[in-house]
């Protein structure tokens, strides 16, 4: 602290020996340097005032502090004792006194306004009581003796000053007032820094305190050195080392008030340190080269060539130093950053590479997980949110990934508009810059979650579209992000935008593929679930695909069908019928073509009856690509229809036969009776006897026919049904017919299933079935042959086959054999009711009968009956 020049005026007459006295230097180094520091105070106050405006908090107060500091640093009396010199000295002392009070008041209010002073204004006034009293006293002490020296008051002040040394006491009081106010103010700032948890407040106080400490350390070190007897020359260098650092006080406080890039002070200090170390290192190397050059050139007897060569070496060394300056700077910058960031340094360096490789991740969730984890590690932030564009959301964005964010966090409806407007300049939006329209209705609470949890919003733009926004909170220690952090975020935001866009496109494509796969699976399930065979063919008639029902229908695998022409799959007759359906257009159909009850054969030769439909096949773009063939197996339906028709026919004929038999039986009985009576009355020698015998035979034949008609009309009764074994029944039938078969040269071949289950039926009627079939087989084999009797079990059914090696039945007669009165035998050799009765008995036993035959290759009758267990289950149900 600086001793003030004082004056004591006893009267207006002075006596002094002016011999051998040198002139007093007016502009000493200390005065010049203090004036320079004062100008810095004035410049800092003016800059803050004009930059922030008088309405900003603390600006007017800080500018006043700077003005008073400028006055007491710059104004300095030079000891002439003139009126102007006295006025300068008085203003200097008054500014010195008021600076302490202003500084204390500023420290009590800064950087957070205190309700203590706002609610009690008198406490503010109390701070300025001491400087006001000191100002009045110094005015009285210094001005009255100078301006009114002839008055008694001036004489009194002069005498008291001589007796009690009032001038020195006044300066001492002013000095202690300055020390007390500055110490209290500094203590308040330190206390507030330690107690306050607000990051911005601590950051502002941190650098204000750091600048003040850096400014007073040289002064304290100088005073301590002097105190311990270290002799320091009072030269310009020493004065500059203790004076110039005082300029850090207004600069640090001014930066704290302005808050310009407050979080970047660490970065600025670090870069300044690196720059200083680089400069020192380069200067040392240049100095070493220059010194070496001097030693090489001076003091030796060198030839011009040697001097030139050494000078060239020195120039090359200087060039090498200049070239190495940038690598040295980078090295020092890396070491400083590594020291400052610690373990996060490598993560920060790898973040850009991570951003470049981020687009290689196609799945959105892993991408967001990796991104948030890397940002959390690098920036040391605790709250992160990734907002993905979603046109269906009210705010046009949805929260895709969060870290440490409250579950009740919501996005304002006009979030996209706000971010777009605010990010146009800087590219990154702070939460306090958002001004949501929702606040008009909901108050500040509408944006409360935004401002409390997320402090930065980084738009990620790809192809002019803001596809995502990254929200970041404060660091784990509560501090804000620096400009380096924000620059890193700006750099990687483009990579993140591309990665997110690629992931969304990939997800959309994947979703589209899943939909197509699901649709394909759905269509295939429909194609596979229908009970009709489907064939898709191209325009050349080659099969491109088929479904499972077709494989089951035709007994062919897909490998046997796909790629082959349709004509190669079906038999020739069916292929010809299909060709007739297609007509001249072949497979270039424009309409659906249908055909019904077409006969074909499967891979094993079984006969099939199919309904066929051929429809044009078109692609999604409505391009003709071939045709689709629909094959419906109606074999069972046709057989059922034929069976129903046969049953209806038999029923109608049965009623007719019953009526005819009843009406014919009565007169026929009379004719037969009278014929027998006449035969008894006429002797055998009478020629009429032979005629009566013929009448008797014809009457017996008619009686037999009437009996058959009665038997045909009486089928349908199940009163005498019981469990029986068909193997035994077949043996009994063969034994019964053995006399009739003995002289026919016919061999009976038995192929029975020894474990044949029993059936429920009427043994007499079933024996009648087998009798009719065996006798019909005998009649079909004029020269003898073989009759095969086979029994099999298939699931719950008993199958009996009667096969002969006779002439067979022609195809046109095969469908008529079960019609009543239809026979292929000659006149008088059959009534045509045998197979009709057989058919009725089989239906009566809930069975079925089929006939298959080829000309000259025999006939096979296949009878199917339900097993006894199946009959009982059907009866129960």
Q: Would you mind describing this structure in some detail?
A:
Helix content is 59%, strand content 13%. The chain has 29 helices and 17 strands. The chain has a five-stranded antiparallel beta sheet. Residues 1-11, 261-265 and 436-451 have low confidence and may be disordered. The chain is an alpha+beta fold. Helix 1 (29-52) packs antiparallel against helix 2 (59-74), helix 9 (199-227) runs antiparallel to helix 11 (248-258) and helix 23 (635-681) runs antiparallel to helix 24 (687-713).
Topology (SSEs and partners):
Elements: H1 29-52, H2 59-74, H3 83-109, H4 115-119, H5 121-127, H6 129-147, H7 152-164, H8 166-195, H9 199-227, H10 236-243, H11 248-258, H12 265-297, H13 304-341, H14 344-358, H15 364-379, E1 384-389, E2 397-403, H16 415-426, E3 429-430, H17 439-442, H18 448-453, E4 456-462, E5 465-472, H19 483-529, E6 533-537, E7 543-546, H20 548-554, H21 558-561, H22 572-582, E8 593-601, E9 607-618, E10 624-633, H23 635-681, H24 687-713, E11 722-724, H25 726-741, E12 746-751, E13 759-761, H26 763-780, E14 785-794, E15 797-804, H27 811-814, H28 834-844, E16 848-853, E17 859-866, H29 868-876
Parallel strand pairs: 12-14
Antiparallel strand pairs: 1-2, 1-5, 3-4, 4-5, 6-7, 6-10, 8-9, 9-10, 11-13, 14-15, 15-17, 16-17
Helix pairs in contact: 1-2, 1-10, 1-11, 2-3, 3-6, 3-8, 6-7, 6-8, 8-9, 9-11, 12-13, 14-15, 14-19, 15-19, 23-24, 25-26, 26-28
